[in-house]
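Exercise 7.
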Amino acid sequence: MVRSLRSMVRVGERAQRALASAAMLDDVVAHQLPLLAALPEESRRRSADYLAELVMLAQSYRHYARGWITKRELDRRGRTAVTRLDQLRRSRPLPVQLTEQD
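Solution. The predicted structure, written as tokens, is:
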């Protein structure tokens, strides 16, 4: 029952690209995280949810690079993340429009 090294550890170009994508997402989160403290409570919560989706997507890329999930599963998780990010974006309150009378 010995599996080949190739099946146990995906070390190819696709895995390297997946790890690079995960690192890029990690960098985005790391640069945005300190800014959360300055936001109002509701915005902070929504932004934290947004960043959490990016963290989970980065983790999916790492799982793919290790061969733990298939490309199809990575694609499914990516589509799910994009849908969730779109829902978060759409759920934010509309900005108040000020007029001259205000």
